[in-house]
Amino acid sequence: MYTIAQKLTAEFVGTFAFVLIGAGSVCADEFLRSAGQPSIGPLGIALAHGLTYAIMASVLGHISGGHFNPAVTLGYWATKRQGSFSSLAYVAVQLLGGIVAAYLLKWTLPETIWRPVAMGTPDLATDLMRGPGMWLEGTLTFLLVFVIFAANVDPRGAFRTIAGFGAGLTITVAMLLDAPFTGAALNPARVLGPALAAHHWTNHGVYWVAPMLGGLFAAFAYETILLKEA
Fold first, then answer.
1. Domain 4-226 has CATH 1.10.260.40
2. Model confidence over 99-136: pLDDT tens digits?
């Protein structure tokens, strides 16, 4: 049995890695494009996010559950799978991990690299209103949390040992669809750190309200419909 300190450490490290590599991949793409070199492109950025989440959730999931996302933790708390104190502590270290990762990038990379992409802070496309943006973020977060519950919570799930890769692949395909429109954050911790480091707060509320509601609905849907005894 792991202690709360060990669980919080796992959540911090997992979220730190996710934001560092995810936001860093956006900066790397900008650097390559500005240098006239072949960039990693949308697929590379999506894979950087998805594979990092998959790896960290797979190696740390047995310690903390591998949330790395306040929307996931909210779903666990709402369905009484995690207590209030540990849930608040999880969210706190997740946000801290994202902030530390973003500031590490800021201190490492020249401003000419991270400034044009606001340190990889997600934002809405120019022609996309906040309403549709929230629907996209909320719906895709719903699918992410639904997959996590199916793979990691459901005792009848056949793939619990590789649950992290199911979540990581979900993030990858979600970004392939939605990154051009909203950035496909699906995770407030992914947004807060870069936004704080780059001072980019445009449409910031979208990336809190929509993922948290999407995660909440997914948790309740799986709990009440699919986990309900026949």
1. no
2. 999 999 999 999 999 999 999 999 999 999 999 999 99
186 CB-side CA count, 13 A: 33
What pLDDT is recorded for position 153? 87
CA-based nearest residue to 145, from 230, 226, 45: 226
How many whole angstroms separate alpha carbon 96 and alpha carbon 93?
5
Q: What is the DSSP letter of 63?
A: H
Q: What is the DSSP string of 17-53?
A: HHHHHHHHHHHHHHHHHHTTSPP-HHHHHHHHHHHHH
Using alpha carbons only, give the angle 103, 109, 112 rounded to the nearest 5 degrees: 115
Q: How many CA atoms does the CB half-sphere of 188 hold within 13 Å?
A: 23
Q: Which two tokens stand for residue 83?
A: 């207590």
Per-residue model confidence (pLDDT) at position 162? 73
Question: Which residues are within 8 A (CB) of 168 and not within 5 positions of it... i.e. 6 or more apart?
Answer: 50, 51, 52, 53, 54, 55, 57
The residues, ordered by sequence, that sit 6+ positions from 75 with a Cβ below 8 Å of its Cβ are 145, 148, 149, 215, 216, 218, 219
Sequence ranges of the domains in the chain: 4-226
Q: How many residues does the chain have?
A: 230
72 near 215, Cβ under 8 Å?
A: yes
Amino acid at the residue 33 = R
DSSP strand E in 130-196: where?
A: none
CB 184, CB 214: distance < 8 Å: no
